[in-house]
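Work Package 4 report. The design task specified in the project plan requires that, given a folded chain encoded as structure tokens, an amino acid be chosen for each position. We show below one input record used in the internal validation round.
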């Protein structure tokens, strides 16, 4: 039996085409048949009801017209309905197909023919015109003898060359190749990112609700858009010619915000950078201890140095202070932060916090500074599957937007030992970069340890891709601890060195950094 593509008829095929298809299927298996094949070249688009190819004979096109067929001075009719000239349609489609094959240098282009098929009408002696000789028509009673008709048709074009199956396969690959297109992870990231942009704009409505509020504590779980809202509020206040200070806790987040605001006049510091700026500006000394007193220096003395410097410099102040990752700021620091406001009552201080990311286990004291609480509820950064996994570590269920992307499953790998992690990471990176076309700068590897204690950092030379502990470097994969990556996010996160010692709070913080794809490597 002949092989017909597609194996299941097009749902738009009428009963007459299906009848002809049934007869064609009974041809010998040397025939291969394309049903309802479109041909497109530039602005030209045609469809051929059937294309038949045979390695020993060539190829032929069929146009099927069922029911009553007539032609008068006004044109053609099919069952009293005006139709395009089927001969002209066939010849144009065949010509388009011929040109396509000829451009590809396919030898089968030399041996072709065409027929109209009238499956409802028996053979007749009616004169059909010089442009439609009877040998070009296959009537209903001739359907069982189509192979003989095709042989006769193709022989009129001369003796054909012998074509092998490879030639037929080449023909099919030109006209109707099989293909399997799938979205790479980078394609998925691009699509989901556009959705997140829309969700973020919806989240901006929170600022409108807080219009005029000077002191606000905005809390929300990971992915609810706290940093995005902070940046939008900063932009609006810059438009009002306000001086804006953006404070962070850790350096990586500070560097990220500096990049995002580099074209604006926002002052960006992490808290200790602010302390150092004022201390040195007012002539004070900044001596970072290397001994056991360093915790006291960073936690207490720096805030005292800032207070002393502010007493000396009465000029440098800000109309708006935004504090990101506010849950990590100690009580002693807030007194100095409030002193940085230009007007204690008229200036703005907006703090952004996630109490569930209080990885330093600080007492929650922000209520003492008269900050009005406001809660962000909906997640606008993570896919639904990532958000559910991350929130699950703190016993919560994320509140998603109706059109939030569902995302891909979290990949959890159980690793026998630390050394096997390296091999697993190599495999993951190869797939992400070479197959899924993900940019290196879109990938972050997080460790539940410190970076220097992780096996990856010590053996990074065995990875063929560049690994860096500096953020936003093109053609490099960022490597960080969970704590240093707080407040940041990445399209793809590989969380490694996960064992029984890691807290659920750290797991919540680490997993929620992933926007689109998350890998979790658990070691025994």
């Amino acid at each position: 039996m002949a092989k017909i593509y597609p194996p299941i008829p097009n749902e738009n095929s009428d009963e007459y085409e299906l009848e002809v298809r049934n007869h064609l299927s009974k041809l010998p298996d040397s025939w291969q048949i394309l049903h309802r094949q479109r041909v497109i070249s530039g602005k030209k688009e045609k469809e051929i009801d059937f294309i038949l190819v045979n390695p020993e004979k060539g190829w032929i096109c069929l146009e099927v017209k069922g029911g009553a067929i007539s032609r008068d001075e006004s044109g053609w009719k099919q069952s009293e309905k005006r139709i395009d000239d089927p001969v002209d349609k066939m010849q144009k489609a065949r010509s388009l197909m011929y040109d396509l094959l000829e451009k590809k240098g396919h030898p089968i282009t030399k041996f072709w023919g065409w027929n109209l098929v009238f499956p409802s009408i028996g053979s007749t002696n009616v004169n059909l015109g010089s442009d439609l000789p009877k040998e070009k028509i296959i009537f209903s009673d001739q359907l069982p003898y189509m192979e003989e008709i095709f042989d006769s048709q193709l022989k009129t074009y001369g003796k054909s060359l012998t074509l092998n199956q490879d030639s037929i396969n080449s023909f099919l690959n030109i006209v109707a190749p099989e293909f399997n297109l799938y979205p790479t992870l980078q394609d998925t990231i691009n699509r989901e990112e556009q959705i997140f942009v829309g969700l973020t704009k919806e989240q901006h409505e929170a600022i409108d609700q807080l219009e005029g509020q000077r002191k606000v504590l905005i809390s929300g779980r990971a992915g609810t858009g706290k940093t995005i809202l902070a940046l939008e509020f900063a932009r609006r206040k810059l438009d009002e010619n306000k001086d804006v200070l953006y404070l962070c806790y850790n350096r990586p987040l500070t560097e990220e915000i500096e990049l995002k605001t580099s074209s604006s006049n926002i002052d960006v510091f992490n808290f200790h950078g602010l302390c150092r700026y004022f201390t040195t500006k007012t002539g004070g000394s900044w001596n970072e201890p290397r001994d056991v007193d360093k915790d006291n220096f960073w936690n207490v003395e720096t805030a005292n140095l800032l207070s002393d410097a502010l007493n000396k410099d009465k000029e440098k102040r800000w109309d708006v202070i935004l504090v990101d990752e506010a849950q990590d700021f100690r009580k002693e620091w807030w007194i100095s932060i409030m002193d940085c406001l230009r007007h204690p009552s008229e200036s703005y201080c907006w703090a952004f916090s996630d109490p569930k990311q209080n990885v330093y286990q600080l007492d929650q004291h922000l209520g003492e500074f008269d900050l009005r609480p406001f809660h962000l509820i909906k997640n606008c950064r993570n896919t639904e599957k990532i958000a559910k996994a991350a929130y699950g570590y703190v016993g919560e269920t994320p509140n998603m937007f109706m059109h939030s992307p569902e995302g891909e499953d979290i990949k959890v790998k159980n690793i026998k030992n630390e050394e096997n992690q390296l091999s697993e990471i190599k495999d993951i990176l190869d797939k992400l970069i070479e197959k899924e076309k993900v940019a290196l700068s879109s990938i972050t590897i997080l460790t539940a340890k410190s970076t220097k204690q992780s096996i990856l950092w010590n053996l990074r030379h065995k990875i063929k891709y560049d690994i860096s502990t500096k953020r936003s470097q093109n053609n490099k994969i960022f490597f960080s601890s969970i704590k240093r990556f707080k407040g940041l996010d990445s399209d793809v996160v590989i969380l490694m060195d996960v064992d029984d010692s890691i807290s659920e709070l750290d797991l919540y913080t680490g997993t929620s950094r992933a926007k689109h794809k998350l890998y979790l490597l658990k070691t025994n």
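Residues 3-175 form a domain with the Trna Endonuclease; Chain: A, domain 1 fold (CATH 3.40.1350). Validation will be extended to a larger panel in the next phase.
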